Automatic annotation (TrEMBL), chain A:
<dbReference type="InterPro" id="IPR031157">
    <property type="entry name" value="G_TR_CS"/>
</dbReference>
<dbReference type="GO" id="GO:0005525">
    <property type="term" value="F:GTP binding"/>
</dbReference>
<dbReference type="InterPro" id="IPR009000">
    <property type="entry name" value="Transl_B-barrel_sf"/>
</dbReference>
<feature type="domain" description="Tr-type G">
    <location>
        <begin position="25"/>
        <end position="241"/>
    </location>
</feature>
<feature type="active site" description="Phosphoserine intermediate">
    <location>
        <position position="544"/>
    </location>
</feature>
<keyword id="KW-0808">Transferase</keyword>
<dbReference type="InterPro" id="IPR027417">
    <property type="entry name" value="P-loop_NTPase"/>
</dbReference>
<dbReference type="Pfam" id="PF00009">
    <property type="entry name" value="GTP_EFTU"/>
</dbReference>
<feature type="binding site">
    <location>
        <begin position="470"/>
        <end position="477"/>
    </location>
    <ligand>
        <name>ATP</name>
    </ligand>
</feature>
<comment type="pathway">
    <text>Sulfur metabolism; hydrogen sulfide biosynthesis; sulfite from sulfate: step 2/3.</text>
</comment>
<comment type="similarity">
    <text>In the N-terminal section; belongs to the TRAFAC class translation factor GTPase superfamily. Classic translation factor GTPase family. CysN/NodQ subfamily.</text>
</comment>
<dbReference type="GO" id="GO:0004781">
    <property type="term" value="F:sulfate adenylyltransferase (ATP) activity"/>
</dbReference>
<dbReference type="InterPro" id="IPR041757">
    <property type="entry name" value="CysN_GTP-bd"/>
</dbReference>
<comment type="pathway">
    <text>Sulfur metabolism; hydrogen sulfide biosynthesis; sulfite from sulfate: step 1/3.</text>
</comment>
<feature type="binding site">
    <location>
        <begin position="113"/>
        <end position="117"/>
    </location>
    <ligand>
        <name>GTP</name>
    </ligand>
</feature>
<comment type="function">
    <text>APS kinase catalyzes the synthesis of activated sulfate.</text>
</comment>
<feature type="binding site">
    <location>
        <begin position="168"/>
        <end position="171"/>
    </location>
    <ligand>
        <name>GTP</name>
    </ligand>
</feature>
Amino acid sequence: MLESVAAASSHGLSTPTETSDAAPPPTLRLLTCGSVDDGKSTLIGRLLFEQSLIFDDHFAALERDSKRHGTTGDDIDFALLVDGLEAEREQGITIDVAYRYVSTPRRAFIIADTPGHEQYTRNMATAASSASLAILLVDARKGLLTQTCRHAAIVSLIGIRHVVLAVNKIDLTGFDEAGFNKIVADFKAFAATLGFASITPIPISARHGDNVSEKSANTPWHKGPALLSFLETVEVEEDQSAKPFRFPVQWVNRPHLDFRGFAGTIASGTVRPGDEIVVAGSGKTSKVARIVAADGDLASAGAGEAVTLTLADELDIARGDLLSDAKSRPDVSDQFAAHLIWMSEDKLMPGRSYLLKSGAKTVPVTVTELKHRIDVNTLGQLPARTLSLNEVGVCNLATASPIAFDPYADNHTTGSFILIDRATNATAAAGLVSFGLRRATNIHRHGLSIGKLDRARLNNQKPAVLWFTGLSGSGKSTISNLVESWLFAHGLRTVLLDGDNIRHGLNKNLGFTEVDRVENIRRVGEVAKLMTDAGLIVLCSFISPFAAERQLVRDLLDDGEFLEVFVDTPIEECIARDPKGLYKKAIAGEIKNFTGVDQRYEAPLNPEMIVARDGQTPQQAAAAIVKELIRRGFIDSFADPGDDFSI
Amino acid sequence: MKSILSPHLLRLEAEAIFIMREVVAEFERPVMLYSIGKDSGVMLHIAQKAFFPAKPPFPLLHVDTTWKFQEMIAFRDQTAARVGMELLVHINEDGVRRGVSPVASGSSVHTQVMKTEGLRQALDKWKFDAAFGGARRDEEKSRAKERIFSHRSTAHAWDPRNQRPELWNIFNTRIKPGESMRVFPLSNWTEIDVWDYIAAEEVPIVPLYLAKERPVVERGGALIMVDDDRLPLLPGETPRMEKVRFRTLGCYPLTGAMRSEASTLPEILAEMRASTMSEREGRLIDHDESGSMEKKKREGYF
Ligand SMILES: Nc1nc2c(ncn2[C@@H]2O[C@H](COP(=O)(O)OP(=O)(O)OP(=O)(O)O)[C@@H](O)[C@H]2O)c(=O)[nH]1
Ligand SMILES: [Mg+2]
């Protein structure tokens, strides 16, 4: 061992550009992972040593340290090159990630050496989040351990697609081929559902250097490459520039009144002056005017570049907004499903308020439902009420205000987030968005024209619930808004519960399955009842497809208080209008459980009122409803509305 | 003039810009530590780009140990004038009164009092909640373990065993009153990257980095430059002129020079690639013991 030290005394740094004229492959970011003591740090140390990347003074220190802290008898302990913290050297384990920078004549590498110890799994996840390849080490004598599986699962979850299965300490099994093959087979079976694009098994000895930089004569049966030559040539990068444009606004640059630029790093796609962009949250669009850079404006910029954009129009844009390709927009939602990797000693508390940071946006968030935890040994699902340190779970989250995002599978930048404990400021979890929950994604808010204080004005009226039911796009909200406006204008106290608006708050956690629709209506009914108790005229506008639930609300209220208004616009007309583009999506199968398409609508048999038939306009419908309220004595007849509000 | 950066350097530059913008957006009173060295120079250069056309919205801070090379101080003042940013200079007056100096007190006391304590005083005095530093992970094995956003307690201490996980490019910047963050935009740069970048972008550097005939004495294997008459010469020592340069710049009696013929950037790069010694080898303060950098950092050293 020590003879080779002398041979390596001419240490030199090289950069990939030195020896070849062709463009070198891009810098490879990778990590080592696997169970404790499997030899991760030793491997990195060995690689640095063999690539002559250890300075003489560092090597002298390593020799001294090996005598003092070494785990390898009289030999050099290469792990001490990377285990830089005192506690690590004393205990002979890795606690936190070490980043090392290696350049060979063929490629530059950023290598993260991670701890195998279960307690420090979060540090391994930290390293994985910026890597595109993982070297998963397994001790040839021990085979797959729980921690090997956990690391493999995290590597897969974080989206790393290429794995080197380094079966280490092969020297200690006498370079046994059968043992190696068994571990490879076990791992391939375990990883079958993990979706790796490539798994490259290599038998190595980190300590003695077999198959590290060069192929070893001790393993003639190994037909694959040595580790280094594989790493120098493997292609891992996905082309982020080919994806839709995403630009999280990090900072608004406003040096003087004539300049307003949006500084940020392009998460994906490319941008050119003239491109149409949309501010995902507000839906406002504009065109890119300039791509400003210190050395002069750019003609285009792509993923990964830190630039400053100016727009053709004065839009209200702040830090945290996401500028996107107008033709390919992200989800905007206050609810989504995600994987969480829990990173705090304090357990997850569903229902508790955390801060979510995604891109440049920070919003309060709660976990509304923890669906299950992942068993790292079997990758199966376990029921769970909480998540503890280093556990992985699947859950639904609800943010205090809508945020723009993409599924993590599509975009690692706009699909990732962290949770922060509001009391301790600790990073509590890493999150990966699976998908937006449809109920939030496709609901567009209706602006209510009347404020709460206005409604508080007292007047002569009888409380009632006006229940508007009908298909999506039939005009319920439009008509009920008109009716409320009229009532308000005449000094009456009203409140409007809207199918869309109530789902942003009270019923955030409900979807559109039959079960959820039932619960949705039940809650609205209870609220409406409380409002009538307060003396209000309550306008409720919900698709409410099932007769049984409408009956349930009727039963909650006093006799005669419930007025069912059937907004009977034919389905063909609703599909033709399709104001929110939802029918199109539903017919294409992108939305499930959509009323009128793949879920039934039970038309009312004895409604108090039917409107919108035979081409009746919303104005005419509203006038008819008000007349009916007067006729039934809910409001005074002091003002006849006429037959049509539009006149 | 527009330089052509390699994809590797472009990515490192973009990462540094992202980090700087994040700090400016999330902290109330950021400051950039400016130590006059090559890393500070690169950091400052990138800051000009990050906020263009605005000026970087934070001041520069130099913690002056009063033992910097004269050329460094001159370069510092020129640089601040050139970039048009406010330059704050802090000297630990208490240390000066007590007569602390590398000559009289030895390197570790001098560094502790004039640098570490001086820095803490300055951060407290101006109530900075985030401070940029030019440290790189490849400099030293405990730095290789440090996060880009490195949380400090109210006593400025680093807790290496309890660092916040740092995922993707999402940085948890939240701190409690009195706590602060040290931020290292050049974490992932190597020494070679820094020089490649300086060459490509024509970043101004202190002439001490380039070889020139300078008066030196040889002590304990290190070449010490006689920068002024504060360095007491030992019996038998006479300064002689040698062609030397500095690979790293600290306080002058604590920084060893190296014999070199490299008086241009390309020559420096060539010399660097052939070097077998680490950069901090010339820093006498690091040699005390193997874990000494970690110890200093836990106490609030940069
Ligand atoms: N014989 C032999 N021993 C090895 C080999 N690789 C590592 N070791 C020894 O295994 C022990 C643990 O090695 P480390 O590199 O510290 O293991 P690690 O995976 O980094 O451990 P953690 O980071 O704490 O999870 C050390 O004593 C190494 O010298 C190998 O290929 N052969
Ligand atoms: Mg280790």
